[in-house]
Recover the amino acids of this structure.
């Protein structure tokens, strides 16, 4: 999609490409956004300056943090927001026949050149009620942005959060691979999941399309079908393999592997550990090693992990070692993963010691098989020897929670603050255009997020500030910040003179997310019974919220 570059030209810089998914157009919205736009236009209100906040009310997965994602796609949508003649014709047919032609002429003219977007940096750890995006502009145009930006942020943030929770449980040292393509909710769910799992801390994906689109590292070897497709070593016709340095050639790699298998079976440390292995499996392993001698990783549970898969792998790996190659490792896709990984590790160490193969004991062990956050936690408690986890279904589908629940609420129009009231306190909006800050304590951890009115003085390092719960009068605390971070930055300046923040590379977003999690106090991000993070407002904003609340709430009358 060609970018229209409809922001202020002095701020735009390079032309921005369209959203990753070409279905993300102005029509990716709910019908009532267009009916409201018509009603605004009919009432002459369509150009009134409005401010909307996009935020969520509750952290997902029973936790106390969320990772914000999807910003880049939102900005790409806004940069390219323009209705085509064909789209306008469809809207005309979809709205009641009483709609005036002048409205459709208005739709032909609109873009986001007069829209301003302020957002928290993508990959930041965020909390309920704090605006992730603040969108300002003509009310009809901003209203048309509501549904698509919610769509782009909700799933992205949910998946990134799910991925980061898996990373926290697995630990920093383990490699995490996203294997969810075949189980994801359609192509867009799969592509998005690969991107946002990477942001959340995963190391690589099996999704080739996502690798091409986003530069995410790719990982993958073979399936059970590949192993079971072989019948015997006799099927291997091309048996020669050149050494890694090119100095020599093994003319019969199959014979070399079989000699190693015999040596393993009769070695004094392993004798009696296993007998005859499955020869069709061995043929598959040899064939794969001949194809990828530098990237040999074997799926060892097609027939029997300990009696066949592991010894067959070891024989091939040792033959490769003779030629200067180092096998990558094994993958376990079924069975008692903790036990099998521990037993395989013992064999690897035994082989290293008995045959003098340096580093063989550290051969990588990967596990898959419908893993999730709970499984990883249980494996940690049992003790295991896995180095890498391939995670799919539960990760990309966010099986533990269907949606994040972001909302898009009007907080100001024509410089007049607006509030949405509810008997459910969690659904009461925080009015007016706000600035948001994160306050850090002496130990470097963030203490509290605070929202203040746009014209209030910003918090300063070393100066005490009163932080109040937005709705609970008794919850308040003084904070003396050691570091103050402003959260909302200008990512689309419209016609203002503000400098636009550049969208960072995906790898930088991922690094930022990991750093953010390190800056959180451990009890806020722990898996069980996490401590709620404090989100507050200034004393002045607290007073204004309650003044406006009383002003807008109807007074009852008792008979």
């Amino acid at each position: 999609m060609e970018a229209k570059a409809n922001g202020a030209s002095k701020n735009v810089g390079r032309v921005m490409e369209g959203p990753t998914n070409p279905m993300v157009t102005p029509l990716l919205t709910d019908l009532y956004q267009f009916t409201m736009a018509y009603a605004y236009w009919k009432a002459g209100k369509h150009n009134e300056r409005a401010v909307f906040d996009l935020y969520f009310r509750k952290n997902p997965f029973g936790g106390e943090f969320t990772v914000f994602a999807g910003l880049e796609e939102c900005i790409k949508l806004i940069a390219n927001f323009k209705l085509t003649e064909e789209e306008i014709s469809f809207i005309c047919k979809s709205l009641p026949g009483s709609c005036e032609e002048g409205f459709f002429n208005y739709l032909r003219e609109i873009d986001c050149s007069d829209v301003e977007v302020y957002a928290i940096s993508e990959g930041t750890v965020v909390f309920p009620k704090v605006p992730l995006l603040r969108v300002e502009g003509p009310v009809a145009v901003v209203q048309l942005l509501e549904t698509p930006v919610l769509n782009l942020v909700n799933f992205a943030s949910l998946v990134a959060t799910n991925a980061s929770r898996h990373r926290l449980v697995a630990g920093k040292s383990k490699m995490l691979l996203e294997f969810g393509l075949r189980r994801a909710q359609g192509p867009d769910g799969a592509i998005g999941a690969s991107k946002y799992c990477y942001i959340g801390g995963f190391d690589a994906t099996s999704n080739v399309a996502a690798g091409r689109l986003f530069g995410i590292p790719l990982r993958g070897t073979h399936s059970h079908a590949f192993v079971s497709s072989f019948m015997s070593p006799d099927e291997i016709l091309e048996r020669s393999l050149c050494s890694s340095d090119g100095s020599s050639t093994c003319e019969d790699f199959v014979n070399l592997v079989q000699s190693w298998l015999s040596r393993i079976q009769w070695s004094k440390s392993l004798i009696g550990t296993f007998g005859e292995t499955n020869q069709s499996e061995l043929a598959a392993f040899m064939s794969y090693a001949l194809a990828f001698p530098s990237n040999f990783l074997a799926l060892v549970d097609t027939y029997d992990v300990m009696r066949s898969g592991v010894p067959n792998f070891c024989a091939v790996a040792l033959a490769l070692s003779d030629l200067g190659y180092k096998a990558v490792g094994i993958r376990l896709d079924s069975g008692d993963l903790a036990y099998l990984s521990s037993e395989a590790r013992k064999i690897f160490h035994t082989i290293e010691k008995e045959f003098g193969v340096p580093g063989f004991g550290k051969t990588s062990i990967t596990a898959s098989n419908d893993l999730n956050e709970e499984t990883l936690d249980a494996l940690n408690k049992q003790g295991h020897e896995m180095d890498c986890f391939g995670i799919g279904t539960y990760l990309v589908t966010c099986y533990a929670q269907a949606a994040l629940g972001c909302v898009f609420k009007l907080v100001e129009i024509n410089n007049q603050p607006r509030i949405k009231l509810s008997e459910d306190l969690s659904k009461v909006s925080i009015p007016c255009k706000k600035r948001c800050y994160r306050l850090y304590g002496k130990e470097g951890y963030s203490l509290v997020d605070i929202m203040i009115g746009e014209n209030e003085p910003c918090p300063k390092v070393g100066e005490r500030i009163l932080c109040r719960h937005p709705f609970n009068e008794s919850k308040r605390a003084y904070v003396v910040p050691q570091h103050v971070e402003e959260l909302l930055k200008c990512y689309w300046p419209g016609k203002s003179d503000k400098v636009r923040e550049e969208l960072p590379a995906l790898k930088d977003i991922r690094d930022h997310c990991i750093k953010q999690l390190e800056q959180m106090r451990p009890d806020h991000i722990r898996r069980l019974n996490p401590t709620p993070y404090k989100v507050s407002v200034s004393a002045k904003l607290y007073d204004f919220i309650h003044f406006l609340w009383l002003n807008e709430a109807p007074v009852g009358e008792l008979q």
